[in-house]
Amino acid sequence: MRVLAVGDSYMPRSVFRKAFKDLERSHQIEYIDMDGAAAFAPATESELRLREYFGSPDQVARCMDGVEVLAVHGAPVTDDVLDASDVLRLVCCARGGPLNIDVEAVRSRGVPLINTPGKNAEAVADLTIAFLVMLARGIPKAMRFLGEGGQLGSNWQGSQFMGNDLRGHTLGLIGYGQVGRRVAARATAFGMQPLVYDPYVEVTEVEQANDLEELLGVSGFVSVHARATDDNGHLLDERALSVMRPGAFLVNTARATLVDQDALDAALASGHLGGAALDVFAHGPAGEPSPLLRHPNVVLTPHIGGATSETLMQGGLMIAQEIERFAADRPLYHVVNTPVS
Known about the structure:
Elements: E1 2-7, H1 13-19, E2 28-33, H2 45-48, H3 57-61, E3 69-72, H4 79-83, E4 90-93, H5 103-108, E5 113-114, H6 121-136, H7 139-147, E6 170-174, H8 178-189, E7 193-197, E8 207-208, H9 212-218, E9 221-224, H10 238-243, E10 249-252, H11 261-269, E11 275-278, E12 298-300, H12 309-327
Parallel strand pairs: 1-2, 1-3, 3-4, 4-5, 6-7, 6-9, 7-8, 9-10, 10-11, 11-12
């Protein structure tokens, strides 16, 4: 088969080339990179369905002649791109959510669309544990102390940075999917006691809370790993945060919409919460820092949960495996759409 692998600034073609090395033995593969400077103004119905992409559809369409399998990460895939090949049989997106693809256009052409759910689960779980340690040990306060020129004159003065071990503390996990399960395993190794709230999965290996309030009321640490839906916006609102134990810590490496940021700001200002670490949060005006950074017990990172080389490679390998299965006429693992036959 002829395969077109389209890289971008986040996942360049070099990653696809490494992941697709074994495919090259039996398939013709062309690798290109998107030019981020080639921005376009979405105008067509198909283009307006895209939500997050890099480059322009025209860049992809120019290379589509004779392509049977299209593999992208962030490149835009519209009806014009799909129509540029009259032999296209499979579209692959090396992301958990194909925000850069007109899913309906792919479906209507009878072409399956593949994605890579869980490719970043290991990386996000690692970051979550790092956040837990940073909050427990008061790292934000200690770093700010040094950043402001502070020095300890003696070991005795270090008492102002007295923190906590993770061992013995209950970790409330809101959501128990790919990331939540990995966080539970890591936290158990630290001696924590995981408690899960997820009404959509059956949990047998760790304790499960009857409802969200029960989890919030007994957990010294709460970590959010739920999917964002139309129904769970501000899942952790003013009421939910007030139910949390005084001095408890909140971690969110899932989606910003799950936490009411104004309510969180107030809970930190009042001292009700002991601290928070967020990889996802609502941004204010460009160039201005988040107001949450005014609190000395807050850690913020700019959505880097999945930003590891291993995550990119995992996405490429998952796509390569799907292409191999497709070529062998075997069932595919991660089909986003239901193609129209």
